[in-house]
Amino acid sequence: MCGRLALYSDFPSLACSLKLPLIKGELTPRYNVAPGTWISAVRRHDGSGQLSLDTLWWSYRPPWADDKAPQPINATVEKVATSPYFRGAFAHHRCLVPADGWYEWLAVGGRKQPHYLTRRDGEPLWFAGIWTERPDGKPGCAILTEPARGVAKAIHPRMPLILDQQSLEPWLDPELTDRETIRHLVHHLPHHELTHWPVSTRVNKPEEDDPALIEPLEPSAP
Asked: Where is the stretch described as Disordered (predicted)?
């Protein structure tokens, strides 16, 4: 799954990584982004088609759903294109969630040890996402997940769908709506480009938010 992430790259770095015309949005370094908060995402606006860096509420509920409907933060790649809950957004409202890394928890000796997963070269990651106008008026999103690959598999059975450079533009293309076409044009980042290390359990508390959270855990540190 993907339930906690970090984004501290500045706007020029993200724009350079995306390599597409992008309208600048507000960006504050965050090292412990939790669900149920505003997160940064790149999406095309209906009508103009312009790409902008916006803020979306990290939990998904389509506008037709009632108050008892679920508000998932993730959508699986196995079902996102066919589930009635997600398929409209998959066809018409795809987005990219930028991140410098994300956290997963590994069970070790009866407790859960957080790990920080990121790119080996320090470049930003681009998570595939979908968004919708929620019943409460907020634009909400979910991050797609897939079976974990490479080093990530040792930490958790699932991971965010991280797109490679050639997949960013087609993922955001509003003309692409067919599931099979999208599958053939969109590919995940090679798993060998990822690495991870254990970090402090301070990340367990969403109110903790500072650069030290992503530092490798020192021996005997909490």
From this structure: 200-222
| Total domain count, the chain | 1
The domain of 92 spans 5-214
CA distances to 11, 84, 198 from 143, rounded to whole Å, are 21, 17, 23
pLDDT attached to residue 130: 98
180, burial (CB in 10 Å: exposed 0-12, middle 13-18, buried 19+): exposed
pLDDT at 221: 53
Task: Please name the residue that has the structure tokens 């984004």.
Answer: 7
Of 188, 175, 177, nearest to 81 by C-alpha is: 177
- What the block records as the tokens of 192 is 């060998």
Q: Identify the CATH number of the domain in which residue 148 sits.
A: 3.90.1680.10
Average pLDDT, the chain: 94
Q: Is 55 helix (H, G, I), strand (E, B) or coil?
A: strand
Beta-bridge partner residues of 58: none
Mean pLDDT of 165-189: 95
Q: What are the angstrom distances between the C-alpha of 123 and each of 53, 105, 152, 190? A: 18, 23, 17, 14
